Amino acid sequence: MNAVVQPMPRRELLLGCGNSRKKAVVGSWTTPEWDCLTTLDFDPACNPDIVHDLNVLPYPFADNEFDEVHAYEVLEHCGRQGDWRFFFEQFNELWRILKPGGFLVATMPSWRSPWAWGDPGHTRVFTPGTLVFLDRSEYEQIGRTAMTDYRPWLKADFEICNVREDGEHLGFLLKARKALKA
Predict the structure, then answer these.
(1) pTM above the 0.85 mark?
(2) Which of 133, 146, 115 is nearest to 172 (CA)?
(3) Which residues of 61-72 are buried (b: 16+ CB within 10 A; e: fewer)?
(4) Which of 20, 29, 109, 176 is in Cβ range 3.0-4.6 Å of 115 for a Cys bridge?
(5) What's the angle, vertex CA 17, arms to CA 14 and CA 21, rounded to 5?
(6) Sign of CA dihedral 53, 56, 60, 63
């Protein structure tokens, strides 16, 4: 008798969930609904699964725990503009908790949006160029362009799969490059 093997559900993390549990960004790489969602927010009134401040590292998760990490309108509230150390520490941490081949999905106001600068809770902005520093293959430019070499602080390696900016919003999909462990 052959046993039927059920596929493991995808584990997803929604950072800064607030009062919403909607999967706002979907694509060919994911399912339209959550499979096995964990929510995180710093506000206990939102009833998240985990109460945690995203400015406090490390995050309370094991290595390689999630297939997807979603951050909708939240990363611009973390760290400070120009604090490159926190920037790399945070993205190293997001990479750490993603499984090999896992996806980081994020949205935020575009740097051109009045909301990027007008919301008093926003502490940093990203541009598509910011993401280049998370892709190790981009560091081949060192010495040929003005790109700063942050490799000593970058443990992560993300493939930039998709970036969209429309003047109001910036959205991106990054894939965690890591070796599969036997």
Answers:
(1) yes
(2) 133
(3) beebbbbbbbbb
(4) 109
(5) 80
(6) positive
3-state secondary structure of 176: strand
Kindly give the confidence (pLDDT) of every residue in the chain, 182 residues in length, as a single tens digit, with 9 standing for 90 and above: 667 777 788 999 999 999 999 999 988 888 889 999 999 999 999 999 999 999 999 999 999 999 999 999 999 999 999 999 999 999 999 999 999 999 999 999 999 999 999 999 999 999 999 999 999 999 999 999 999 999 999 999 999 999 999 999 999 999 999 987 65
Token code pair at residue 181: 């462990």
* Phi-psi domain of 16 (left: phi exceeds 0; alpha: psi -120 through 50; beta: other): left
